[in-house]
Amino acid sequence: VIRLSTGIYEFDKLIEGGIPQGFFVALTGEPGTGKTIFSLHFVAQGLKEGNPCVYVTTEESRDSIVKQAKQFGWDFEEHLDKKLIIIDALMKEKDDEWSLTELTAEELINKVILAKQKLGHGYARLVIDSVSALFLDKPALARKISYYLKRVLNKWKFTIYATSQYAITTSQPLDLVSEHVADGIIRFRRSVKDGMAT
């Protein structure tokens, strides 16, 4: 089994060297628990290893993702349109090649496939941050959409991180479905120890 480094060496050791290539991994947790940062590590490691990477952001702007990466010393800007494409689902501008005009599974998949074709053949890393946004107005279709995403994107040789939100009040996932279709689940939790949130 070929494993891809998460970009976090100590975590890789816990999971036998990294994420198996081709896996769909659900990253779940409350807002602010580190899912986006964990995803940025995965992309930065991919770029370091020369892997094509696609990052879909549904909750922050493309500029925000680039700035966050810079805080960790990763220059995503130099890789844009060469080894990295960031698809901005917030902008909804028709003149921006890498934005979505509407947030649907079909449009997201079509844009991701276009990005993959531009970046070239072979295996690639994909982050969808967050997949919960696809289900918010249609929870009854969540299972169908999740299976559809996984089935179609796996054919395009992606190893996928899909983040999903937990409700702060109940600590329950907003979309249990992505967990059901995932090959692996990484849960992020917030805890209080000695009066400090960790």
Which structural class matches the secondary elements? alpha/beta
Average pLDDT across residues? 87
The CATH superfamily appears as P-loop containing nucleotide triphosphate hydrolases
Largest sheet strand order = 5-4-6-7-3-8
- Using the alpha-carbon principal axes, give the shape: globular
- Uncertain residue segments: none
CATH class: Alpha Beta
- The DSSP helix count reads 6
Supply the number of structural domains: 1
SS strand fraction:
15-25%
The CATH architecture can be given as: 3-Layer(aba) Sandwich
Major pleated sheet = 6 strands, parallel
Keywords: ATP-binding, Nucleotide-binding
Organism: Sulfolobus acidocaldarius
GO molecular function, one term: ATP binding
InterPro entries: AAA+_ATPase (IPR003593), KaiC-like_dom (IPR014774), KaiC-rel (IPR022443), KaiC_dom (IPR010624), P-loop_NTPase (IPR027417)
Helices and strands, with pairings:
Layout: E1 3-4, H1 9-14, E2 19-20, E3 24-29, H2 35-48, E4 53-57, H3 62-71, E5 84-88, H4 105-119, E6 124-129, H5 142-154, E7 158-165, H6 176-181, E8 184-188, E9 192-193, E10 196-197
Helix pairs in contact: 4-5
Structure description:
By secondary structure, the chain is of the alpha/beta class. The protein has one domain: 3-Layer(aba) Sandwich (Rossmann fold), CATH 3.40.50. It has 6 helices and 10 strands, in the order βαββαβαβαβαβαβββ. It has helices at 9-14, 35-48, 62-71, 105-119, 142-154, 176-181, and strands at residues 3-4, 19-20, 24-29, 53-57, 84-88, 124-129, 158-165, 184-188, 192-193, 196-197. The strands form 3 sheets. Strands 5-4-6-7-3-8 form a 6-stranded parallel beta sheet, with helices on both faces. Helix 4 (105-119) packs parallel to helix 5 (142-154). The protein starts with a strand and ends with a strand. The relative contact order is 0.20.
